[in-house]
Amino acid sequence: MKTKSIASLLLTTALTFAATGAAFAQDKTVKIGALSDQSGLYADLGGPGSTLAAQMAVEDSGLAAKGWKIDIISGDHQNKPDIGTAIARQWFDVEKVDIIVDVPNSGVALAVNNVIKEKNGVYINSGAATSDLSNAQCSPNTVHWTYDTYMLAHTTGQALVKAGGDTWFFLTADYAFGAALERDTSAVVTANGGKVVGGVKHPLNTPDFSSFLLQAQASKAKIIGLANAGGDTTNTIKQAAEFGIGKGGQKLAALLLFLTDVKAIGLETAQGLNFTETFYWDMNDQTRAFSKRFAAKMKNSAPPTMVQAGVYAGVRHYLKALEALGGNSHDGAKIVEKMKSMPTEDDLFGKGEIQPNGRTIHNAYLFEVKKPSESKGPWDFYKLVGTVPGDQAFTPLSESKCALLKK
Amino acid sequence: MQALYAQLLVGLINGSFYALLSLGLAVIFGMLNIINFAHGALYMMGAFVAYFLLNNDYLSIGYWPALIIAPIVVGIFGMILERTMLQWLTGLDHLYGLLLTFGIALIVQGVFQNYFGSSGLPYAIPDQLKGGMNLGFMFLPVYRGWVVVFSLIVCIATWFLIEKTRLGAYLRAATENPTLVRAFGINVPRMITLTYGLGVGLAALAGVLSAPINQVRPLMGADLIIVVFAVVVIGGMGSIMGSIITGFALGVIEGLTKYFYPEASNTVVFVLMVLVLLVKPTGLTGRAA
């Protein structure tokens, strides 16, 4: 009796393993976690819109019709690295999430980067700016999609220095993102013969910038570089106008500005600002068509920001890679490797590629905010000033400190 | 040295918001014994009402009338809150009022955020107050100058109303001994409701004043309220003059911190709060309960 039950137990175990093995080869279940700032100062540029973008990517992939089961969950990291990593861990351990997308706020993004590497998941970061994600802290599990501080510095920063803005004062958000953006932009300014005359670090989410703006004014720098984002940038720009900066000969450089920020400031105040984005809804027929579908599903009928567009494009590419692999192996590094081996192409960013360090390369565009008289609709804000090809906008591999390149 | 004067002035401007808000809190705490955590949300509502008045196709009511209308509208909302919810807490521990108003704040903010997102809405400075003047040591936007002057007037008027008029005397008496005051034929519950409306109206007024400077955002009050509470605690809970003076003083101290060590500007107020409470637990001008 005893031998018989042991034998049957062994048999059952063997059968279970065989069954799991077969399922492994063609597992067509995927779980996507959209981790974002859902309620704070970056919620409009990522947040619920990023979750929607991921949903649309899943729908547009057509995989459901082919028998795939793809679920999406979302979470709020509240701009706190400890909360972000706690959610990421719970998602991998309990919810069995395969991939985390979006994650604005560089501090949270870098912390989550480590968790995803440890759990061998996939990380498509669209929201965070720090160039470290594909540089010093690159990971075999990470793809950095939309933009980064190196790109912002080498497009907006360079253009302004070349136009004569050779002395800079920085207003910097006091966390990982601000530090990275100031570092990368300072390097560009000095490399082009300019000089950084000073700077001030302000706490994240500051309502009043007048003290900092006074210091910037007193520095007499030609350019006041804003190394901050979201609500901080909108408040700075608004209050700078109030203090007569601009009229006094100094120029504001919004190194990072999103569509929703321009909406929040209003064209009256924002007109004439130069900045860089990698996506704008009104670029061509494809972007307009997508944005129309997107806006129809958004509560405030807002078209996608570049962060949300990046979530869409990233998830689309990820699902393409899974399809090419024939199923979900749940092996993050292997899937990211596949993603890197395939050229990227979608309606929103056009053709591109993912470099070995995880950096997605695509065009970057220099924009200028329209005058109120030039704007024809509620979201008609940008004038295209120039296009920078991807290979010139992002970190050249020769300069990258990414350990993955040293194989 | 010039930069230092400039920072002092800017600090005074921020201080006027702290003063207006903490004044409302002090009035409500002093008279109703409620720690009004919804104050930040009501401040935000003031800014939003101003925004709606201006951007509604039928109304298009600008800044000046909004300065009166918005506080009245939000004040009425406050009085409804008081009638329907807060009045049931009379005589209970402070903690209940704090929890209830905190819940109200979360709901109000959540509703606004759901509808308007988080990045905010633009509100232009009224034409009459555009531009600025060169003071030699700094460029002072006319609007900010106006904020300081107007807040000072409102603060002093409120102090006068409560400390020096007959109505104020009734009010103070009603908080000391409601039964006795009622015996004189005075409708105490109505007076309490009106007082809450007044405190809330002050918050909404600060909201309208702040709309052209800061973005009109659902979380604008949440970001500010903790600092304002620190101001009230430092000034002495419920002390009218204490909250006005501390409001302005803390604005200045914060401004100076932004100049000398900007990274600490968000925490300096709390450091001060700890120091004051260690030395004088009732706050600078507070009376022992």
From TrEMBL, chain A:
Alphabetized InterPro entries for the sequence: BCAA_transport, Leu-bd, Peripla_BP_I
Keyword Aminoacyl-tRNA synthetase: no
SUPFAM superfamilies on file: Periplasmic binding protein-like I
Signal sequence extent: 1-25
Domain (Leucine-binding protein) ranges: 29-370
Pfam families: Peripla_BP_6
Domain of life from the UniProt record: Bacteria
Keywords assigned by UniProt, alphabetized: Amino-acid transport, Signal, Transport
Family according to the record: Belongs to the leucine-binding protein family.
Matching PANTHER family: LEUCINE-SPECIFIC-BINDING PROTEIN, PERIPLASMIC BINDING PROTEIN OF ABC TRANSPORTER FOR NATURAL AMINO ACIDS
Name of the featured protein: ABC transporter substrate-binding protein
TrEMBL record, chain B:
Superkingdom, taxonomy of origin: Bacteria
Record keywords: Amino-acid transport, Cell membrane, Membrane, Transmembrane, Transmembrane helix, Transport
One Pfam family named in its UniProt record: BPD_transp_2
Transmembrane segments: 6-27, 34-54, 60-81, 93-112, 143-162, 192-213, 225-253, 260-279
Compartments in which it is found: Cell membrane
Family listed: Belongs to the binding-protein-dependent transport system permease family. LivHM subfamily.
Name of the protein in question: Branched-chain amino acid ABC transporter permease
